[in-house]
Amino acid sequence: MIRIENLCKSYGDNQVLKDVNLHINKGELVSLIGPSGCGKTTLLRCINRLNDITEGRIFIDDKDSDSVNPVHLRRGIGYVIQQIGLFPHMTIRKNINIVPKLIGMEMNQAYTDRINELMHLVSLDPDIFLNRYPAQLSGGQQQRIGVIRSLAANPPILLMDEPFSALDPISREQLQDELLNIQSTMKKTIVFVTHDMDEAIKMSDRIAFMYQGKIQQLAPPQEMLENPANDFIRGFIGEERRSKNLGAAATITVGDIAKNHDNLIPGDTHISELFGSPLLEQNQSLVVTDKNHNLLGMVSSDEVKNCKDGKIKIQQLVSKVPHLEYDLNIQMANSRMNELNMPEMPVVDGTRALGSVSYKTILQAVVR
Amino acid sequence: MSLFEKVINVYTKQTSMLLEGLWQHICIAGISILIASLICIPLGIFLTRHKKLGGIVIGIVSVIYTIPSLAMFGLLLPILGIGSKPAIVAITMYAMLPILRNVYTGILGVDATLIDAGKGMGMTNMQILVSVELPMALPVIMAGLRTATTMAIATTTISAFIGAGGLGQVIYRGVNLLRDEYTVAGAIPTAILALLVDRLLLLAEKTISKRTFRGGSRNGQKQ
Hints:
The complex is a heterodimer of chains A (about 375) and B (about 220).
Chain A: E1 2-11, E2 14-24, E3 29-33, H1 40-47, E4 55-60, E5 63-64, H2 70-75, E6 77-81, H3 92-102, H4 109-121, H5 126-129, H6 139-151, E7 157-161, H7 169-186, E8 189-194, H8 197-203, E9 206-211, E10 214-219, H9 221-226, H10 231-237, H11 239-251, H12 254-259, E11 264-266, H13 271-274, H14 278-282, E12 285-289, E13 295-300, H15 301-306, E14 324-325, H16 330-340, E15 344-349, E16 352-358, H17 359-367
Parallel strand pairs in A: 3-8, 3-9, 6-7, 7-8, 11-12, 14-15
Antiparallel strand pairs in A: 1-2, 1-4, 4-5, 9-10, 12-13, 15-16
Chain B: H1 3-13, H2 15-49, H3 51-66, H4 69-80, H5 84-108, H6 112-120, H7 125-158, H8 167-177, H9 180-212
Helix pairs in contact in B: 1-9, 2-3, 2-5, 2-7, 2-8, 3-5, 4-5, 5-7, 6-7, 7-9, 8-9
């Protein structure tokens, strides 16, 4: 989705980005983290061309961003900043409508419904808040609107520059959860700048650690915790955080996680019964069982959704996959999943299926 | 007859002369402010895009502002003769500084993060100017306009010396003929006019701001 190739950026003699390469996949949330002045914000602002590029290329959807008018490019990319930047002389509704108006989007019922749904996702009542002015909202509420404003035109990409850093710890946590919630339904490609390691661990699919204008390590959070590429990263993460997160990894078993993540489904269920059900919408994959709750295999939600014939039973779609025993600790589980290259695996107690674990649910358990 | 009675006498007997003076006064001040605004608002916007030039231009306009008005009229007389023409030119030059400076500082004073947010959302420079910078800078720009207008009304009085007409002529007559009632009869409407116009502009500013700005808690309390 976003491909950054050999990117260099200088201000006069001061080189702030040195030969940066980064590929970000569709639907992925990648954090850029590092100390102040490491170039993370500069890199972010190169993606929507708020900063000019000195050397190198950035491809968005395989299109060289240099060949697109920067104004049009930015309209297709959501942008959230730490200072929020709501226009104080416009109502919340007008603030949200800015980009849709710029691109000439039709403000029809479907649009209104979508905005209302977004408002509900961040627990703000649209009837009350849309007609208010930014000054009448708290900081946390304003940043919620900031996020909604960036999503209003439904862009595939979202750039977030330390969006939650200025908020109090409680609001910050809530907004992180709400963003994860939005992300799980909308699957945007998100580049997220932060200096808070806990936030990066919680939010990211992958973390890019930047220092002195270079990406020093690019890895999923768990891997970065386990194997920091160098002493600087190790120091930045801190031993305390490492042992806390890794210590938790040694005591939590995959059974614990699978129990809290109910995605079991009897094999004789017809596909048609599943369409639109929360079970299908909220899970990446479903674990299919027979009458005695024994594991039959797994099927991805997308596969079910793409299945045209509603009459067939779900067990016909199942693929047989390796499974994990419930008493395996998540550190072991993680390396086993890496080995097999499976992002999600079913968990069993003997032959009885308990559910499944994925990188994401493991990580959430660790951070919690 | 007391001074008060004499003044009343002037108002009742010489109504048409006073009204004519008032009308000339409004015309001279109004035209000057209009010309100054037409020059300075676009110029001020242009200078915010070329800050290096901004300091120089505002410096020059400031120098003009420090020239005493009598000296200015004296300088303009040989070029433009007497009458309302040199008056309008002089007052326009004086009105430039408050308008230009407030447009310039008003726009530069707009929170840079708002402009960054606008740019990041894909607004063009023109869109940012019209829907972010100008509305946000409006109170400052209006304040400059008010200063300029009050000043213009006051200076128009002095322009009677070069035969521009206006209420200054009435005052001037009183001074020359040593008849205080004329001086007072001319000064009162001048002062009222200045205050009235100032209030009107303030009201206009508040009405526009109220429609576009609503800080605080007008539509319900803050949560």
